[in-house]
Amino acid sequence: MMKAPIPALALVVFAAAGCLHTAPVETGTSSFTVIEARPVPPPASGKGWAAVPTNHAQFRDAQIKGEPILPVYPARALAAKAGSAQVGVHLVIDSQGRVSDVRPSMVAVTIAPPEFAEDFRQAVETAVRQWRFVPARAQYIETVQGSGGFSYDRVARTEDVEAEVDLAFTFTANGKVQAK
After folding, report:
1. Cα-based distances in Å from 12 to 2, 21, 72, 102
2. Are the CB atoms for 71 and 170 separated by under 8 Å?
3. What is the DSSP string of 53-75?
4. 3-state DSSP call for residue 24?
5. Quick one: pLDDT at residue 5?
6. Which end is more exposed in the chain, N or C (fewer Cβ atoms within 10 Å of the end residue's Cβ)?
7. Which has the closest alpha carbon to 28: 77, 63, 61?
8. Extended strands (E) in 13-146
């Protein structure tokens, strides 16, 4: 009878037993796409008029500060292997740069299994309520009558204003982000 050397025998035993690692737990991922940015021009007050946001010289969109917190794939939907979902939301960003309202988008479609639609929507709302923005800014223009019969427009003042944006969040249960 031939004896296998001890190291070779140990290698065979470990190989036969297999690796005892646990499989990674899928947590799902999410991503977002900006669908449409719409400013909400404030009413004209005092001297001058609110510039219609026709170019960046008259209006600056709200800009997100830092890295946005993405929604977490809902645990209940993940356990049920609900698959992919898309949630469209309409955000109102106040003049201090905070999200003041989150509601369903009329532009970005929501596609989610009906039994988990509220879970996905709540995950999105929880995430975006934590976002902070550099507020949108509008310039107020006034027309000045110069001597010699000519007139020109000038910026009378600037003001941080409310803005709106539609976003589409895409959830995948397999850990991959779907590109738009």
Report:
1. 16, 18, 43, 60
2. no
3. -SSTTTEE--EE-SSPPPPPPPH
4. coil
5. 45
6. N
7. 77
8. 29-39, 49-50, 59-60, 63-64, 85-93, 99-104, 133-134, 136-145
Query: Which CATH architecture does the domain made up of 27-172 adopt?
Result: 2-Layer Sandwich (3.30)
pTM of the predicted model, to two decimals? 0.65
Tens of pLDDT, residue by residue over 63-93, are 999 999 999 999 899 889 899 999 999 999 9
Name the amino acid, one letter, at 2.
M
39 or 152, which is more confident: 152
Distance CA 30, CA 102 (A): 18
Residue with the bigger pLDDT between 169 and 173: it is 169
Query: pLDDT-based confidence at 55, cuts 50/70/90?
Result: very low
Measure the CA–CA gap between 62 and 15, rounded to whole angstroms.
58
In tens, the pLDDT along 136-146 reads 998 888 888 87
Listed by start position, the domains of the chain span 27-172
What whole-number distance in Å separates Cα of residue 129 and Cα of residue 103?
12
Identify the three-state secondary structure at position 120.
Answer: helix
For residues 72 and 161, what is the distance between their CA atoms, to the nearest angstrom? 30
Q: How far apart are CA 26 and CA 176, in angstroms?
A: 10
